[in-house]
Write a structure and sequence with these properties.
5-stranded mixed β-sheet; Heat Shock Protein 90; 7 strands; Single alpha-helices involved in coiled-coils or other helix-helix interfaces; 15 helices; 67% helix
Length: 443
């Protein structure tokens, strides 16, 4: 179904007439008609304002009076953009995010810095461009929609008021055309029926014509009055940077906690035990030897904890042998039998390789802890410019990326590098988690 048809399907349920018959009476049609009629006066005022102010400001630039006039013009364009976004939201149901406020130039503060920021803002110039190019389009939409709508309804309802022509105006009917010798009136039953049929066709077609014209308005509003793609991308990158910073801080806190509660505490106890053994070395050599033997065991445990911690930071096997060996090592520690299939002709960049490794590692940990699965599978392959990672298990399912879950944090981490996480986990299983990462060549 087309987008225009879907828009009318979204209307409040009523009598189940065919869509083509419901469209002329739909609330959306009348809101779009009102929008198109307001286009002309609104666009005319904006066009006159912008052209006049640009001409005056440009002409007075030599006297330096033109600069504040041009600044006022640009600020007015931003205000007009806000008004048009509100009008589109009210009548067209179009939600367009407001662009960022003007950024004051860092080298100059106060009014001067704000004015320079106004001139540097691409949003400001796009709003001004909208004021200039929207006027001819508004004239076109007004000139087409109003005659079609009025004439269509007038022709459709002609049988209801045709009697008024001979009664009040002394004419047999609607004067279709006149020549010096004769006039042709719509007064016969056939003429009235044909006029009514033509009017019905125009009334049924006009909503789709108007909807097509408002689609152009929607495109203009989204393109020229909303945030630019560059600004949206900058905002996305800033959010991703925040996720990366938060993730790095959380990892540092985890490493500090693991060191403090694990290896550090064990080494402190080891130092104390060795100190006691040193004191007993001359008094009770056998007890000292036993304490040294226990300390030797503690050293082994501390070394194992440090190895596990280092593996959590970045495993040596990943650096030396790549994803295949590293994921096989992780799979070997999983409580569920795991099949690993890595189909890569070459290795990706270390950063991408590391993210893929830790993503698979965390997913396998979730399988061990929560899935109650009997088997699992990890597959890695390259698809064009993307690195694909898929982890499957036959567990109980029900996994999701809802806010607060571990998968939500994983999805945020992947998003910080333009990655994507898709979870398919119906209740009862199986669960398939697919991670997609950008492929970057090794330097």
């Amino acid at each position: 179904m087309s987008q225009m048809a879907m828009s009318y399907e979204a209307e409040r349920p009523g009598p189940r007439l065919p869509l083509v018959l419901r469209a002329p009476l739909a609330g959306r049609t009348w809101r779009e008609f009102l929008y198109l009629q307001l286009n002309f006066p609104v666009a005319l005022a904006a066009f006159v304002y912008s052209v006049t102010m640009i001409a005056v400001g440009g002409g007075l630039l030599i006297t330096f009076v033109g600069l504040p006039i041009l600044a006022a013009t640009l600020y007015g364009a931003r205000l007009f953009g806000a008004f048009e976004r509100g009008r589109a939201r009210l009548l067209l149901g179009l939600e367009v995010e407001a662009p960022r406020p003007v950024r004051t130039d860092n080298r100059r503060g106060g009014v001067t810095g704000w004015t320079l920021g106004l001139f540097k803002s691409d949003t400001t110039w796009r709003n001004l461009l909208y004021m200039l190019i929207h006027f001819p389009w508004a004239v076109c939409t007004f000139a087409i929609s109003l005659p079609l709508w009025l004439m269509g309804w007038a022709a459709l309802l002609y049988p209801a008021y045709q009697w008024m022509y001979p009664t009040w105006w002394g004419k047999p009917g609607w004067d279709l055309f006149s020549t010096p010798t004769r006039s042709y009136y719509l007064d016969s039953p056939l003429d009235i029926a044909v006029t009514c049929g033509v009017g019905l066709g125009v009334v049924l077609a006009t909503p789709w014509i108007m909807h097509g014209m408002t689609q152009v308005d929607r495109l203009l509003v989204k393109t020229l009055l909303g945030p630019s793609r560059l600004a949206a991308r900058v905002q996305e990158l800033e959010q991703d940077r925040g996720v990366v910073v938060d993730t790095a801080a959380a990892d540092l806190r985890r490493i500090e906690r693991d060191l403090h509660d694990g290896a550090q505490a064990r080494l402190v106890a080891l130092a104390m035990d060795l100190g006691l053994a040193k004191e007993k070395l001359t008094e009770d050599p056998d007890a000292a030897a036993k304490m040294v033997d226990e300390a030797h065991g503690e050293v082994k445990l501390a070394l194992q904890e440090l190895r596990d911690l280092a593996r959590g930071i970045h495993p040596a096997v990943l650096t030396d042998r790549g994803l295949d060996a590293a994921l096989s090592s992780v799979a070997g520690r999983c409580t569920v039998p795991v099949t690993v299939d890595v189909d890569l002709a070459e290795r990706p960049a270390p950063a991408i390789e590391g993210i893929a490794y830790f993503t698979a590692s965390e997913l396998l940990q979730n399988i061990s802890k929560h899935s109650r699965a009997r088997s699992a599978r990890v597959e890695v392959w390259r698809s064009g410019s993307r690195l694909m990672l898929q982890v499957w298990d036959d567990g109980r399912g029900g996994a999701s990326t809802d806010q607060g879950s571990g998968l939500a944090g994983l999805a945020e981490r992947l998003g910080s590098v333009d990655g994507l996480l898709v979870v398919d986990s119906p209740e009862g299983g199986p669960t398939t988690v697919t991670a997609e990462l950008p492929w970057r060549e090794r330097g």
